[in-house]
Amino acid sequence: MKICVIPGDGIGVEICAEAVRVIDALKDIHGLKIEYEYGLLGGAAYDQTGRPLPVETLRLADEADAILLGAVGGPKWDKLPAESRPERGLLGIRKYLGLNANLRPIKVYPELANASTLRPEVVSGLDMMIVRELTGDIYFGQPRGIRTSGFERVGYNTMEYSESEIALIAEMAFRIARQRSGKVMSVDKMNVLECMQLWRDVVTKVGERFPDVTLDHMLVDNAAMQLVKNPKQFDVLLTGNMFGDILSDEAAMLTGSIGMLPSASLNVEDKGMYEPCHGSAPDIAGQGVANPLGMILSAAMMFRYSLGRPDMADAIESAVQTVLTNGARTRDIFQAGDRLVSTSEMGGLVEAALRRLS
Ligand code: IPM
Ligand code: MG
């Protein structure tokens, strides 16, 4: 198996190192044959090559069975023109690989129910899956830009979805719902946007082919409210690219910290890129305080969805569970009475648990 590792910027570098340590431990324990190739993306790529997404990175991604990505971006590159920004590199590789489906599991570990800013009874036991479309919507729609009109500038973007794009992500959500509790909540803004009228229409049609799955619809403003009011009403939450971006950060806080959240981005061939939901956190980069668990759990998703080794995914997830049960916490999930650990100590504890549990 070949993995393309792309640490990226900021804390991406530190947390990727911990995920690689965990994979190395699995190689060692189970004799897995896994090779790594390191690729450049985002600000790091811009600094070394003048572009946020070098062709060489696309070649490595093409050749790999899966891609493990840290995070990109930082204030250092904020003044660059749009096409050179680190985020463009990330969107570019998602589009290039056709990673249309972004799966973001929102799971509250019992040990962390108190770490959320919401009351524990609201979040404890929460287990939902956000299925976010990732290669369409206002992120990619044309035309886009900033034009001059009279004496001022006007910024514009286009929210756009084709029927086939909507159908593809809807099918994914229904298939996932079948393996869970059989409920899909589709989120849109059909009361205002034509694009979202089409969304609701196509999702409803696809739903007719999945009579065993219950489909409901919710407007995005209400969904944002319901997520903090009563999150346990949701199981699979299906959204477009931009609403999914926003709602997944909101949902992340139900788990206590966005640092806990993994994600998988898949194309129709199940090639996947695996990255934590959080960003590069430049304010804490290099300090050894970042939480590597979102990244490590992303590696677990990689074993499950792209490498055909769900047993390795289970092993990583149980090791993380054990470490949390034993009270180790990085700063973002720390509360009085816990044991405060650094990024690398956390990675080391997961590794030790893997070795003990195997
Ligand atoms: C995410 C991030 C990205 C997005 C940014 C960094 C471009 O926020 O993966 O959620 O908006 O998709
Ligand atoms: Mg985001």
Characteristic key phrases:
about 350 residues; alpha/beta; Isopropylmalate Dehydrogenase; ten-stranded mixed sheet; 12 helices; binds 3-isopropylmalic acid; binds magnesium ion
How would you briefly describe this protein structure?
The protein is an alpha/beta fold. The chain is built from twelve helices and 14 strands. The strands form three sheets. A ten-stranded mixed beta sheet has the order 2-1-3-12-11-4-5-10-8-9, with helices on both faces. The protein has a two-stranded antiparallel sheet with strand order 6-7. A two-stranded parallel ribbon has the order 13-14.
Topology (SSEs and partners):
Layout: E1 2-8, H1 12-30, E2 35-38, H2 43-49, H3 55-63, E3 66-71, H4 86-96, E4 101-107, H5 120-123, E5 127-133, E6 145-149, E7 152-156, H6 163-178, E8 183-188, H7 194-208, E9 214-219, H8 220-229, E10 236-239, H9 241-252, E11 264-266, E12 272-274, H10 293-305, H11 310-325, E13 328-329, E14 339-340, H12 343-357
3-isopropylmalic acid binds next to helix 4.
